[in-house]
Predict the 3D structure of the following.
Amino acid sequence: MSANNALHIAVLAGDGIGPEVMAPALEVLRKIEATTDLKFRFTEAPAGANNYRETGKSMPESTIRLCDEADAILLGACGLPSVRYPDNTEIMPQVELRFHFDLYAGVRPARLIPGVPSPIVGADQRGIDLIVIRESTEGLFASMGKGVVTDTEARETLVITRKTSERLFEFSFRLAERRKARGRPGQLTCVDKANVFKAFAFFREMFDDAAKRHPDVKTDRLYVDACSALLVKRPWDFDVMVMENMFGDILSDMTAGLIGGMGMAPSADIGDRHAVFQPCHGTAPDIMGQGKANPTGMILSAAMMLDWLADKHGLESAAEAGERIERAVDKAYADGIKPMEFGGGNGTADIAKAVLAAL
Ligand code: ATP
Ligand code: MG
């Protein structure tokens, strides 16, 4: 926090629909600023495929420096199918940020907002309110760019370390405890494949050790395959779930599907000191520039940012503001907002207007 107590927010709008969903999220935060004692200082900075095309840099050093100094980082989405690095890999500065700032905990809540259609029968009655915590710096992704391919075979490596796993589990148990304090079950499920791979048995062992230090959190262990079936049959049985990078990548897209679509899902990548908040979705080039993008996930990511800042700096008013944003989003949907994303008639501007009005 700077001298005048303003929270300094690095704003990386990115590519595609990134800037389209960022604008309403910033409007929401400005409204929070106008109606609370919270103060923000927003600094926008370039990152992504468009910037790479223009300057040869997808994540300029100046942007990294800004992110390092800021209290939190808000990110739209980055990367475009038409712009790639010379070796033909995708431009993913969001992944660079994860590794650079060691943001090991990828937090992906999936809460079904009343009034939003879920593909799961019974979900409108039972509700869905779970969080996937995806380890975000190792697992199968530790192999990124290092895989070995010959004419006859290809190999990648799965890495699980004690250092990262222990921090990940501490974070996960703490989150489950905070949820419990807010009236959720406070149950933590470890998702792995410990029956087949030694690396996952190691993962589970460390989970069990952490569980001993947090006896007030109910724990559960599931193999990822069985877990997938349960997630679509009884998603309301889950509270907080923690898993390896690749499993989290896949299951968090699925849980976003359970709550109505990619545009609904917020996320956070959290480390010991830094954190990036961005919607789960990508740049969605198929709908960019048409005013169709659903900004809900981005707005809810801004709410998560306030909650994280509240926890970090002991700012009660930031926690309240985060909850206020969630309630405003709920009210917009209760009042009948239907995003084009799932067949309704409301585009970005309508959704933004409804949330701002509800605030
Ligand atoms: P990434 O590789 O970055 O994850 P992706 O190829 O998985 O990207 P997304 O950009 O996440 O793709 O989008 C998948 C599809 O979901 C898009 O083609 C788009 O139609 C839809 N979509 C994603 N985000 C939104 C949104 N905010 N509003 C409406 N539709 C969206
Ligand atoms: Mg994707």
